[in-house]
Amino acid sequence: MSDDILFDDHISPAILDLLRRAGKGDPVVCVTPYLKLYDRARQAIRSATDNRVRLTFLVRKDASASFHDDLVWLDSHGIRVYLLENLHAKVYWSPSRMIISSMNMHEASVSRSYEVAVVTRMMSDIREMRARINEWLSFASPLSGYDDLGYCIRCGETRSFNLGYPLCESCFGTYGYVRMAAGEDPFCHKCGIRVRTSYEKPLCKDCERSMAGPAQSRTRF
């Protein structure tokens, strides 16, 4: 599967399309050191959150004061925001495709800068980038406290993280202690990614490995 190369005013629509087309429950990560949300970006972000896409933003910590209002807006819409010193990479990641670009999600980049991007759907590259983004996130500071956040393994709604009780109140009220067949629950309790889990084994393989290792290697999405 070949990569696509995009330039200038073709890049922002591709990034926003990635947000809009993400599936229900999918994790999506925007790595953008500088941030200035423009109207179409806000609309695409709201469309993604309405579709219960699990959005994470990673931005540059030592520049974050200049776009504090945008970070507050993201946080108020239930989007995880992390701050990392000296961040320079720009990546827009989803489970099915990713965009590696020179473009920040910033109105000046969209309207005035000369930019380039590569869009790839190669699963090996997407998996490798996910591991690298998780490494960056392990060094980053959260804008808010996310350590106790988990996901219901049956419906994917957010809830407190508890390996002994990985269902939300609604699903527990519907199913009680009835277990589905092993591997039929569709969400990981830790990162929320779509994957086969069960009440007895509520984590994906990546989260199982990361929780067994050092805290700094913990999977974040």
Radius of gyration: 18 Å
Strand content bin = 15-25%
Q: Count the beta strands.
A: 14
Low-confidence spans: 214-218
Task: Calculate the terminal CA-CA distance, rounded to whole Å.
Answer: 25 Å
Q: Order of strands across the widest beta sheet? A: 1-9-7-6-2-4-5-10
| Strand-pairing-aware structural class | alpha+beta
Main sheet, how many strands, which sense, barrel? 8 strands, mixed
Tell me the number of helical segments per DSSP (H or I, 4 or more residues long).
Answer: 7
Sketch the topology as an H/E string, one letter per element.
EHEEHEHEEEEHEHEEEHEEH
Relative helix content = 25-40%
Mean pLDDT: 86
Coarse morphology: globular
Keywords:
single chain, 221 residues, alpha+beta, eight-stranded mixed sheet, two-stranded parallel sheet, 24% strand
